Amino acid sequence: MSKLINQVLVVGGGTAGWLSASILAKQLNSQSPNAVQVTLVESPNIPIVGVGEGTWPTIRTTLENLGIDEGDFMRECDATFKQGSQFVNWVETPTKTHSESYYHPLSAVFHSSYDFNLAPYWLLGNAGETPYDQAVATQCHVCDAGLAPKKITTRAYDAIQNYSYHLNANKFSGFLAKHSTKHLGIKHIKANVTRVNLDDEGYIESVETDTSGTLSADFFVDCSGSRALLINGALNIPWLKIDDILFNDTALAMQVPYENEDTPIATHTIATAQEAGWTWDIGLHNRRGVGYVYSSKHTTDERAEEVLREYAGPMSKGVQARKIPLNLGYREKFWHRNCVAIGMSAAFIEPLEASAIFLVEAGANMMADQFPRSRDSLQYVEEKYNKTFRLRWDKSVDFVKLHYCITQRTDTAYWIDNCHPDSIPSALKNRLAHWKTHPPTKYDFDYAYEPFVLDSYLFVLYGMKYNADISHNSSSFPRNEEAKMKFENVEHVGKMLEKELPSHRDLVEKVYKYGFSKI
Amino acid sequence: MANVQPISSTQHGDVKIKDNATLAQSKNRHFAPVVVQEFVPASQEFPVIFIKDSETGTFRSIALLGLKPEENLFYADDAWQATYKPEGLTLSPFLLNQGEDTSLLCIDVDSDLINKELGERLFDEQGNQTEWLKDQGEKVVQYVEKTYATQNFIKLLLDNDLISSQTLNLKLENQEQYTLSGLYSIDEKKLNALSDEAFNALRKTGALPAIYASLLSMQRIHNLARRKMAQ
Fold first, then answer.
1. Over the stretch A52-63, which tens digit does the pLDDT of each residue have?
2. Contacts of A114 (CB under 8 A, 6+ apart)
3. B56 close to A (CB below 8 A)
4. A355-369 helix and A58-65 helix, angle to the nearest 10 degrees
5. In angstroms, rounded to a whole number, what is the distance separating the alpha carbons of residues A180 and A165?
6. Residue A151 in contact with residue A501, Cβ under 8 Å?
7. Do B57 and A151 make contact, defined as CB atoms within 8 angstroms?
8. How far apart are CA B70 and CA A283, in angstroms?
9. Which helix (DSSP H) or strand (DSSP E) does residue A334 occupy?
10. I want to staple A233 with a disulfide (CB 3.0 to 4.6 A). Which of A229, A373, B82, B229 is the partner?
11. How far, in Å, CA of A13 to CA of A41, rounded?
12. H/E element holding A462?
């Protein structure tokens, strides 16, 4: 047997580093004496970027598997419940008196489109004038009413309406560091990596640090963010840009305090289309995270700050806006020899669908599950991993692009350019052409690890009013009565939930005080 | 909501408290709180189980009194229909308002037991507490201490992972069906699977009689079903 892999070194201590290290150490049972040992080295003085404060519902399973108490996690990370995203002004140019929006909710109770796709029945008018999101998902009503997705008596990590979290990413890294060094057997070193050493075969052998000497390992995880110390710095894997598809290259971020202690907290991300990009608005427990993601080719930094401040409102007065350059794209390979890049070192798509942390979880899970214990088994996993993640990123790019390229806005060059056929990936273009006359079905999403599936596409397509004309084919959809009953049921259950569920802030305050029970 | 006021001779000098033989305030309650010290006697007549407090999500021990919300099968206009009276119900309308340093004996002034004609007086002609009131105050304080012991008992159960969520499905002889969810009970399998060490530790805390009382009391659901059929 070839050289065994017994030591793993994770380089970088942001969300990607700590999540990857924790998931790996848990899966490999690193606390036991004969197991793979996981060490994380992080710079004591490079600030964490804090990518995205939004997560996906998968994070609940991840945290529960790591043995984390939900109440502790929420309290220590200023976390709140996220039930979806609301897209404001993406379809048409707003006027002073008119603004429209649609939801992409995280659950679609009673609308399991895999069993019975309601979309064609909605297109044929069986839900009357009700917009698609409101017609099929109770969660839109819950979001509108500012209600929590569960009750204080609901078991930890269980949901009444599917949910994820909005969280303070810096605090989340610190929380994971504390938990995983204490309970998962991860060794933590604070030092700056100054040099990466390769062996004769081109595998990484060790890294040198300024204060902790040389750290050797058999396998390396590059979570060093956009600096990509290992995957690029040492292994020279190039970065593929996607700026011909997605134009946003700059973000301006602010932390805006609430007006007072009982200001309602939105239970969804509010993404509002602007003249040269979009603003995010994320309600944490103690503040809103607000920012503007934009294309510097289509506006100036000064104008962008004006737009952001106008959106953020009077509470943003005197608050500093931090400029973050964004370099959208991904590595030609994510896994190379004995190194895998996870997080911003691997890829970065703008935060529109909050996929950053999700893709870290997905990457770490696959790495942990397929973890090669000897050097000669690396090649097989490397190929599989690269293939899977190339596909996941391509699909994520397609889905993000979908939000832009079917808009009816023509008020600025930004929106016109976004609809230019040359900027639309061909796979997406083909789908859109087909979906003009046929609503998407489950067979359009046949890949097991597709990051965005049928429901997500339906919410965005019909939220964007990209309605298929299927009137010529109505005879293929004879289950009208059944569909009508389902639409009525959504309305009925929505009203019931409005009576049943507490307000979002109310539940957050209670969780911080009492936590959730594990049973 | 209860309208709670600290007891004072100036405000409540002429107040009298009626005898509460029927535990009238529980008329529309399908459960009553019980403390761990009364698990054994209460388990003779009611299922003694656990629910989550709707305000805090924390566990409380209760005696189940009905098969659906707002139903108390042990209430009747003339007398309480069981031999055992859950202690918490007998304290009405008194309760303790606990501050950081001191605790104040209070009454729920909305209680129907409060009047000016019938029952026991709180204060005598000189405005001094009657022996009866002192006695009630003593009982309330003792009860609150028992609730602390109960919280520790529940924590012990949770730490040992001995409580499981339980849905009670019941079909009466007349084919009526009842489903009670949101209940939690001692998990017999997990109790049996405890290591000798953990079981011995439980024994030493004196928790075993209450644990087995709760376990056996699940059979009292048939007592409730019988009462329901007799209605």
1. 588 999 999 999
2. A442, A454
3. yes
4. 50
5. 20
6. yes
7. yes
8. 38
9. none
10. A229
11. 7
12. helix A454-463
- Whether the complex's predicted ipTM surpasses the cut of 0.95: no
The pair phi, psi for residue A268, each rounded to 5°, is: -150, 160
The minimum CA-CA distance between A507 and chain B, rounded to whole Å, is: 10
Number of Cβ atoms within 10 Å of the Cβ of B13: 14
Task: Please tell me the distance from the alpha carbon of residue A214 to that of residue A205, in angstroms, as a whole number.
Answer: 10
And the tokens for A488?
């009525």
Give backbone dihedrals phi and psi of A80, rounded to 5 degrees, phi first.
Answer: -130, 175
Name the one residue in this structure whose structure tokens are 């209760």: B62
Task: List the structure tokens of A266.
Answer: 């939105």
On chain A, the residues whose CB falls within 8 A of the CB of B52 are: 152-153, 517
Angstroms from B59 CA to nearest CA on chain A: 9
Residue ranges of E strands in A162-283: 164-166, 187-190, 193-198, 204-209, 214-216, 219-222, 239-241, 250-257, 269-274, 277-283
- Categorize the per-residue pLDDT at B54 as very low, low, confident or very high, splitting at 50, 70 and 90: very high
Q: Which two tokens stand for residue B200?
A: 């011995």
Say which amino acid occupies A224. S
Tell me the one-letter amino acid at A258.
Y
Q: Indicate the residue of B54, B57, B182 with minimum beta-carbon distance to A517.
A: B57
Q: Report which of B63, B108, B98, B68 is spatially closest to residue B82, judged by C-alpha positions.
A: B63
| Distance, C-alpha A112 to centroid of its chain | 22
The sign of the CA dihedral A147, A152, A157, A160 is: negative
Alpha carbon distance A122, A128 (integer Å): 8
DSSP state of A145: T
Tell me the count of A-B CB pairs closer than 8 A. 34
What is the rounded CA–CA span in Å between residue A219 and residue A371? 10
pLDDT per position as a tens digit, B170-218: 888 888 899 988 999 999 999 999 999 999 999 999 999 999 999 999 9
- Kindly list the residues from chain B whose CB atom is less than 8 angstroms away from the CB atom of residue A513: 56
DSSP state for residue A207 in the 8-state scheme: E
Instruction: Say how many C-beta atoms besides its own lie within 10 A of residue A442's C-beta.
Output: 13
Is A510 in contact with B53 (Cβ distance < 8 A)?
no
pTM of the model: 0.92
For B12, the token pair is 């409540």
Tell me how long chain B is: 231
Other beta carbons within 10 angstroms of residue A310's beta carbon come to 11
Contact B164 A519 (CB under 8 A): yes
Determine whether the interchain pair B56/A515 forms a contact, defined as Cβ–Cβ distance below 8 Å.
no
8 Å CB contact between A152 and A505:
no
Q: Which residues of A are designated catalytic?
A: 82
Q: Which two tokens stand for residue A131?
A: 């917009």
Q: Left, alpha or beta for B175 (phi > 0: left; psi -120 to 50: alpha)?
A: left
Interval A85-96: pLDDT, tens = 999 999 999 999
Structural contact between residues A169 and A282, judged by C-beta atoms closer than 8 angstroms: no
Three-class SS state of A31? coil
Residue of A217, A209, A233, A172 lying closest to A42 (CA atoms): A209
Smallest CA-to-CA distance from A331 within A342, A323, A320 is with A342
**A512 to chain B: closest CA residue:** B56
Instruction: State how far the Cα of A417 lies from the Cα of A349, in Å rounded to an integer.
Output: 19
d(CA A153, nearest CA chain B) in Å: 4
| Residue A403 tokens, joined | 């939000």
**Alpha carbons A107 and A104: distance in angstroms, whole number:** 9
Q: What's the length of chain A?
A: 519
Tens-digit pLDDT profile for residues A96-110: 999 999 999 998 644
- Record: contact A152-B57, CB cut-off 8 A: yes
Q: Judge whether A362 and A342 are in contact, CB under 8 Å.
A: no
Place of tokens 């990518």: A51
- What single letter denotes the amino acid at residue B123? F
Q: Using CA atoms, how far apart are residues B173 and A236, in angstroms rounded to an integer?
A: 77
Instruction: Count the neighbouring beta carbons within 10 Å of the beta carbon of residue A441.
Output: 13
Element containing residue B204 per DSSP (H, E): helix B196-205
Rounded to the nearest angstrom, the gap between the alpha carbon of residue A192 and the centroid of all alpha carbons in its chain is 29
